[in-house]
Design goal:
Blueprint lengths: L4 E12 L13 E5 L3 E6 L6 E2 L3 E9 L6 E7 L19 E3 L3 E2 L2 E3 L2 E2 L6 E5 L7 E6 L1 E3 L12 E10 L1
Parallel strand pairs: 1-14
Antiparallel strand pairs: 1-3, 2-5, 4-13, 5-12, 6-11, 6-14, 7-10, 7-13, 8-9, 9-11
Length: 163
């Protein structure tokens, strides 16, 4: 019997970097950001990894202190997905990875999701005005011990910070 896992989802909540006093005039740092509301994996074979569709992420109207860059990171809010039924095997946060996407005015960084630390997705050079990608792809690793079909979900938090 082959299991179908449909709709394993990672949802994201936005946490914006905290405003920091600017170099002059007390201006805070800010940006308008857009992240995916949800990333879905439709798993038809648990023995092979599954990729998401291309995802878009952007930061516009970026205002940082003189010469500072922007780092975009992601952290899982739990160590494991929540399975559709309690006490069954599911994926861990570290089963999700992403590609080093191509960014306008930035550099993509391949990474793996963690629940203990933010993992970098991209960064810009100093004093960016905007950055964006339309080809960020998340991959859910194969896990042949999954035995329950249904929605396995995990929330994560994006972090946009100057450095």
């Amino acid at each position: 019997m082959k299991w179908r896992i449909v709709g394993a989802t990672i949802t994201v909540a936005l946490v914006f970097f905290s405003a920091q006093p600017g170099a002059a005039g007390g201006m805070g740092e800010s940006a308008n950001v857009t992240v995916p509301a949800a990333v879905s994996f439709f798993v038809y074979d648990i023995a092979i990894s599954t990729s998401s569709s291309n995802q878009s992420v952007s930061a516009t109207d970026i205002s940082t202190r003189m010469g500072r860059a922007l780092r975009i990171s992601l952290r899982a809010n739990a160590e494991n997905f929540t399975p559709p039924v309690a006490a069954v095997t599911t994926w861990s946060a570290s089963n999700i990875s992403w590609n080093a996407a191509t960014w306008d005015n930035g550099t993509g960084v391949a990474g793996t999701l963690s629940s203990t630390a933010y993992a970098e997705v991209a960064h810009t050079g100093g004093s960016p005005s905007s950055t964006s990608t339309t080809n960020l792809v998340f991959t859910l690793a194969a896990k042949s011990t999954i035995s329950r079909a249904g929605e396995h979900s995990l929330s994560a938090t994006w972090k946009f910070e100057s450095f």
